[in-house]
Every structure is written in structure tokens, then in C-alpha cells.
Amino acid sequence: xxxxxxEQTLSLAEQYSLKEKEEKVDIPLPSEVKEVENAxxxxxxxxxxxxxxxxxxxxxxxxxxxxxxxxxxxxxxSETGPAAENxxxxxxxxxxxGAGEEENSGDQESTDEQPEIKLExxxxxxxxxxxxxxxxxxTRYIEYHRCTQAKGEGAPECxxxxxxxxxxxxxxxxxxxxxxxxxxxxxxxx
Amino acid sequence: MPIPCLSWLDxxxxxxxxxxxxxxxxxxxxxxxxxxxxxxxxxxxxxxxWLFLTIAPCDAAEPWQLGxxxxxxxMMQGIIDLHHDIFFFLILIFVFVSRxxxxxxxxxxYSKKKIPQRIVHGTTIEILWTIFPSIIPMFIAIPSFALLYxxxxxxxxxxxxxxxxxxxxxxxxxxxxxxxxxxxxLTFDSYTIPEDDLELGQSRLLEVDNRVVLPAKTHLRIIVTxxxxxxxxxxxxxxxxCDAVPGRLNQISILVQREGVYxxxxxxxxxxxxxxxxxxxxxxxxxxxxxxxxxxxIPGEA
Lengths: 190, 302
Description:
The complex is a heterodimer of chains A (190) and B (302). Chain A is mainly α and 190 residues long.
């Protein structure tokens, strides 16, 4: 639960920001999150590296969770099963109440009809909660190019940023920016 | 093949009366005295025509329409409901105030009461008629703001993004979710159909050559922006009116609840052909949408 929670409490800005070092940048998709939950032991190291302040909250959760387990160590084994289930259930609920819902339903749909066309697009970004999405498009464009600079052209992790900015930006803008980048007059922080 | 939004249904209503009027006019010469009568008949037909038109099952504006168009999205449903809720109280207040006004005029008319009453103030009633009118707008504001902000808010991840780009004087739609490079793969322009090219059943100044095809019952993000001057992307049935401001991307999120063809018009003066920049949205079932898009993608027609 702690892991799942801390994954959730990561702000999107933190999730998307490029690290100085080579590190895993991509957002945990709901499916990945579930994997992490399943392999609970494997996750912590990675999560701890990612977090700055969320661990406080996570610790609090852990401390509230732990006492019953410590009281009855003998029952622990039998309890971990349902507890884990509860955790994943809670996490799933959180996901469905949050951003994950659409993706889940999308998956269902795609299994129903199995088209070549997959309905997916740039997700809601809580850095840009308003009607004005100009910055959203611009930021995605910059993120993509910073990502390719950090990881080399055609890095698979960067592809999703490319998809996002293509979904959001008018092609005219993208063309203009590409031109500006070639000329070295692009106004953004690349 | 564009589906003419069931308007072939109301077409007979629209066409026959006029031809009837024509026939009535020509028959005038035969019956010299029947002029009055046939004129009345013609007027009756016009009234009938309007009556039928108002029933016409078309998601477009109708002649002499007073109410809103049928809601296609939860947003529009909310708007209509709010309107009706407010109108209920509005009418109550209107009746109450008119009653007081008319009563005052009636009972204190100079012909009835020669000596005017000299009431200078009444503290109780003054407090009442200050407090109540100031509370009422507050009670209107609460649901109104709730609706307003819920319209802005994007809670779920949209399943697809459509960019509606206004031009002088046409619209370009970009479906870029399927792009694998910066090359646009699915983009088309949507022009109004000139009056001379209209087919039977198509609405004048409302029909376009390429409709926006959307999947119904799907969360959609529409990015509205122009390429030149301010435009506006408005579809009344879906409760959307989003100004397109140069250099800015405005987002609206809609969920079309039923399949259909929805008509809208430019709502921001954008130049000479402002009136000739309609919007036609065609909501299709989700699985049909997939095949539509893949059909358009594979031939690579842009």
C-alpha cells in the first residue's frame, strides 16, 4: 500500500520532469502500478529514489498499517494475503477515481472490438487544469525534445511525449517550432 | 455518404406547403371571390409548416425556435435544467411582483382615491424587500457556478483529441492521435456547401462538405484555435461555445451521449463569410468510428 500510495502522491510534474541522471522517467501506467504492487519487494528502492516528500505520508500509512501485523506475527502470513488484496483494491479504486479510469475502459473497449485504431490521447495533466491548454502543448513539445536530447534520438521512452504533443499542438505550430529549432531560434528551454 | 440528419423526414413539410401556397395563389384567378379565403389558407399552411418544423427531429436551429436544442451532452442537459429551474422561480417572482404593481395601480388610481396616502417609510417591508432580492441571486449563483466550473473541469482522461482550427472561412480538423511523425495523417478542411449545390434535405448555410466524425459515448477533448482571426466553435446541442483565440489553445471536453448530426455556426465575427462557416458534428457509434478513421487513414487522403 505504501508503494502504491507514494506512486499516487507523486505529482505529475515530478513524474514527468526529466532527471539529471539517466533514470526511468516514464509515468507508471496503471498496469505497471499493479505489477509493482504484486512484486512488493522489488519496488521500494526505485520508489524511494523517485520521491522527495511523499515518503512522510507513506511512512504514516505504514505505521498505521503495521501495528496489527506486529501484534500477531503468527497470523501474518495468512493476513498478508487479504491485506494485499485490500491494498490493491484500494489502489484500484483510487485509480478509477483518478486518471486511470479512462485507460481501463479503453482497454476493455479495445478487447471488445480489437480495432487497428486505438482510442488514446494525451491524458489530463494537472499542471494545466484550465481551458487554456497552450502551455500544455508547448510543455509537451519541450519535454519531448529534452527527452531525446537526454536519451538520444528515437529513445522509446520519449515516444509518448511525441504522441502527446502531436495530439495537442496544431500542426502549424509544430512545423514552426521545428523550423525554429533548426535555425536555433526556438524560444523554449531545450 | 453524409446522412442528412433525418431532415428528409421534415422535408415534405417544408416543401409541400410552399407548393400548396403556389397552387392556392394560381387558383385565385379562377375564383374571383375566394381570394380572402385562400390567403387565409396559405397563412394557415405557414403556421402548420412552423408547427411541423418545430417537431422536426434535427439537431439544428429551427425557424422561430424559442427553447434550446435537444441536449446531446451532460453539459447541455445541465444548462437546460438550470434554465428551467431558474425559470420556475423567475415566473413565480414575476407573477408576484406584477400582482403588487397592478394592485397598486388599480387601487390607488386617482379616480378611486382622490387623496393620496402619505406613507413615507415602513421599516419591516423595506428590510424584506432589500434582503430577499439580494438572497435570490445568491441562490441562483450557487448551482450556476457549480455548473460553470464542472463544465471547465476535465476529470477523466479523454479518449481522443480533435483539433478544430478556424480559418477565414472554413474549418480544419486534425485528428493527430494516430500520427507517428510530425506529418499530419488525418486532417481535412470543412467548407460550407454553397446554396446551389445543396441536395434535397440539406440545410442551407448549415451543411458542410466534410463533417467532424466523433465517437459517441466517449470522452473527447476538443482543442479550439484559429489560424488567423478570432473564431468560435459552437454546437448548441452539445452545449459548447468555445472562442478560438489566435495563439491560444482552448480546450473543451465533451461526451456526446447519442449518435446524431449536430449543427452549429461560427459565433465570433470572423470576417465577411462569418455566416458561411458552419460546424457539423457527426457522432457515430464507437466501433463505426474506428472503421471510419481507419478507412480515412489507409488511403492517406488528407
